[in-house]
Design a protein that fits this description.
It comes from Campylobacter taeniopygiae. This protein folds into two domains: 281 residues, 6 Propeller (Neuraminidase), CATH 2.120.10; 101 residues, ABC-type transport auxiliary lipoprotein component (Rossmann fold). The chain starts with a helix and ends with a strand. With 403 residues, it is mainly beta.
């Protein structure tokens, strides 16, 4: 049991939170100025104010604009929108002007008013694309969070990246380690405990039904899904021995990939053909990242040569991002970016406790957990823009996230 507890420490992150706000660090080059004009006339003042704040924050997070608030200040762009409500539906018209010339005019409809943050995110994503600026395709993607609801009980919730929208998807019992199962974000995997037996489930958001995949003593966690959605990398410990397995969803075939006497967890596909994986192992006497071909049960190679406590990893194509404990700095963990094709390592955070990084779908952003003393926040790193944004959380105790 001591080994299993140690394994769970490699997976878990704990958060506390406040109302969504935003902070920017590492500001970059001079950006075109944009001013936001709200022409909405809706009776719900709280909704009107929140929607405006999300629009402004999204423009900042896109890292394509310098948002100005003074109408008298000269701006390159004007972002003008009208939000209207019809029962439980919202309609949004967005016009973007440059020098008095209309560059974009788009209208959106949302039939679920409580999901209004996604309406704002979608409009910014489309507006950025219409202007031919670096895309933010991830912006309206949903985040899965496992959080404690009471003693030995946890929920799976779905949220937007600002954590303004939150919806409980799975409740009752102990539900952990959610992982998106497809690009459309209509399927996800999670671990639940059936009569104290860890069991992996596949949940379909369209049908709102969960389907059992497999069970295992000790632990069972789906840590990654192949790009085609047909294969899973699973950490299992049927004999108190955590190893990584490949599970084919079509054939139901389970193949053991590692066979080490210590701890092997958190497998992630890597490479253009998903023919390799990186994973966390203590085979050097401390947690570190290793690389292995999927067609080989031996020959794991050390993938990261920086740091001596690298306990979380995420991948995008040939790149990997990981959290690392800093030497001689008690409690300091930073996020680093590297590639399996080179030795360059890029530090993405500067100080404090930064854990559990996850790549966005386009690889251009990374979400992670930032601990701020007794508080914590969701961090979003815009890699190419060299900017980081923080959103304090108000969610209780969090075990894990997926983007």
């Amino acid at each position: 049991m001591k080994k299993i507890f140690t394994i769970f420490l490699l997976f878990l992150g704990v958060l506390w939170a406040e109302d969504p706000t935003i902070t920017v660090v590492n500001s970059g080059v001079v950006l075109p100025k944009i001013i936001v004009k709200d022409n909405s006339n809706i009776s719900d003042i709280a909704l009107k104010r929140s929607f405006y704040n999300i629009i402004v924050n999204d423009l900042k997070v896109s890292s394509n604009f310098d948002v100005v608030s003074d109408a008298a200040e000269k701006s390159n762009y004007v972002f003008e929108y009208t939000l209207s409500q019809n029962g439980n539906s919202l309609n949004l018209n967005v016009k973007i002007k440059a020098g008095g010339i209309e560059k974009s005019n788009q209208t959106y409809t949302l039939n679920s008013i409580e999901q209004y943050p996604f309406l704002a995110h979608k409009s910014i994503k489309a507006s950025v694309s219409a202007l031919g600026l670096p895309p933010v395709e991830w912006m309206d993607h949903k985040i899965l969070i496992a959080r404690n609801s009471s003693s030995k009980r946890s929920q799976i919730i779905m949220a937007d990246y600002t954590l303004t929208y939150q919806k409980v998807l799975i409740d009752g019992g102990l539900n952990l380690f959610p992982k998106w199962g497809n690009k459309e974000q209509t399927i996800f995997y999670y671990t639940a405990y059936d009569n104290n037996m860890p069991t992996l489930y596949r949940y379909n958001l369209n049908s709102n039904k969960a389907y059992k995949i497999l069970s295992s003593g000790g632990m069972v966690v789906a840590s990654d899904v192949s790009s085609d959605g047909n294969k899973l990398l699973i950490t299992m410990a049927p004999k108190d021995q955590p190893d990584i397995y490949l599970y084919d969803l079509n054939s139901k075939k389970l193949t053991q990939l590692t066979n080490y006497s210590g701890i092997d967890v958190n497998g992630n596909f890597i490479g253009s053909n998903d023919d390799k994986m990186v994973f966390v192992s203590d085979r050097l006497g401390y947690p570190n990242i290793f690389l292995q071909n999927l067609d080989s049960s031996s020959g794991a190679e050390q993938a990261v040569f920086h740091g001596k406590n690298n306990s979380a990893v995420s991948t995008y194509k040939d790149f990997l991002v990981y959290s690392s404990r800093e030497a001689n700095q008690y409690g300091v963990f930073n996020i680093y970016l590297t590639s399996i094709n080179g030795n360059d390592v890029r530090q993405l955070t500067a100080n404090g406790k930064n854990l559990f990084p996850r790549f966005s779908s386009d690889g251009g952003s990374i979400v992670f957990i930032k601990y701020l003393g007794a508080q914590s926040a969701l961090g979003v790193i815009r890699v190419n823009a060299n900017k980081t944004f923080y959103f304090p959380l108000k969610l209780g105790k969090i075990q894990s996230i997926d983007w």
